[in-house]
Amino acid sequence: MTDQPQDDQAQGQPEKKRQQKPKGRSHGEGSVFERKNGDRNKPFVAQIPLGGGKKKIVGYYATKQEAVTAKNKALHEIEQIKRVGNTRQKVGEYLEYWLENIHRISVRLSSYVQTRNIIKHHLIPALGEIPIQKLTAREVQQFYGKLQEEHLSSQRIRSVHIALHKALKDAVQADLLRDNVCDRVTLPRLDTGERHPLTQTQAQQFIQAAKGNPWETLLIVALTTGLRRGELRALRWQDIDLEKRIVHIHRSAISVNGYGVVDSEPKTHKSKRNIVLHAFVIEMLKNHRRVQLEQRLKKGATWKDLDLVFPNRVGDYFCKDSLYRNFARILRKAGLPPMHIHDLRHSAATILLAMGVNIRVVQEILGHSNISTTLGIYGHVLPGMQEEAMKKWGKILGEQQQ
Question: Is the Cβ–Cβ distance between 137 and 127 less than 8 Å?
Fold first, then answer.
């Protein structure tokens, strides 16, 4: 009896190919996937592992390729930190590397310069020689206490804390540190300072006193719209639709040490906004433009054409010191107490709220990212408004009693 063949090949059948399982992502590679719900304009999500089973969403993107690029960039940054990280590395060495190779590429120039100054003048002198893996919360807490003794403002100390916390957070994500010691320190109470917003009556006095001043139009725009100084400084004629009475805010100009005046996008998405202007303000802007065109003709070739609404005498960015001097002069003429130029922004908000404008509309005009920010700053104005609102129930409740 002949033995039967043991496989298909012996029967003359072709050999079956074994199916290979798709290769999974290697550990630490991260992932990109499309979310079913959410912003349709940015459906793709980039995600990276943080170790210990934790994951971090890098961001949301319009295309898969953008998400992949962002994911790879984030992984590269973490790998770079790991590469320089070792048990002997000191806080100062890490901060210098982090500033130039990680932080600088992800923030605006003004933010980079601010963080650089904090690292140079505060963090490195106090903590720079400590091995980064031996840095304790107690040492950081004592450091903040010393800054208070040196009479640094609570806001400045918080800026120092934010810079150190961000740097150490990136170190934790790169597995250079087990935890962020900044999570276990207590910050000094934030002193917001006393604000001096104008009342409606004082605003009328201010407007009257500003007539004829070279800075009149800028100050009235600031008072009625709440624009920040940097937004006023960067405002261009192309941003204003005089017919539709709309101003488009999408840039800010900030003085940066070593770089001069830097024109960039606002800090947050909500800061980009459209504001409807009052007809009175539009007429002021039209007259302001006629005067500016006459000045431009007189200056000839020396005029720097940046299309700025509020330039200096030769068309360049205005000097804030000149603005402050004229602002103080107008306050004295109006018989009003001294105040900061930023208080015009607070005045715009409090006057709008006092006139009964919905707080969410005020939030949009000011460009706050969250309603909680608006409530936190101007919530004190609301109690009186709530009382007025309750009085309106009087008629309805009275009718019910009849």
Answer: no
Of 210, 169, 242, the C-alpha closest to 344 is 210
Q: List the structure tokens of 268.
A: 């947050």
Distance between CA 363 and CA 15 in Å, rounded?
71
- Cα–Cα distance measured from residue 304 to residue 288, given in angstroms and rounded to the nearest whole number: 17
What amino acid occupies position 344?
L
pLDDT tier, 202 (very low <50, low <70, confident <90, very high otherwise)? very high
Domains and CATH numbers, the chain: 41-84 (no CATH), 91-184 (1.10.150.130), 200-389 (1.10.443.10)
Contact 252, 262 (CB under 8 A): no
pLDDT at residue 255 is higher than 80: yes
pLDDT (tens digit per residue) in 267-315: 677 889 999 999 999 999 999 999 999 999 999 999 999 999 999 999 9
From CA 327, how far away is CA 333, in angstroms rounded? 10
CA 320-240-313 angle, 5° bins:
35
Helices (H), 261-319: 279-299
Q: Exposure string (b/e) for 340-354, b if CB count within 10 Å is 16 or more?
A: ebebbbbbbbbbbbe
Whether 354 has a pLDDT exceeding 80, the answer reads yes
Angle at 220 between CA 338 and CA 314, to 5 degrees: 95
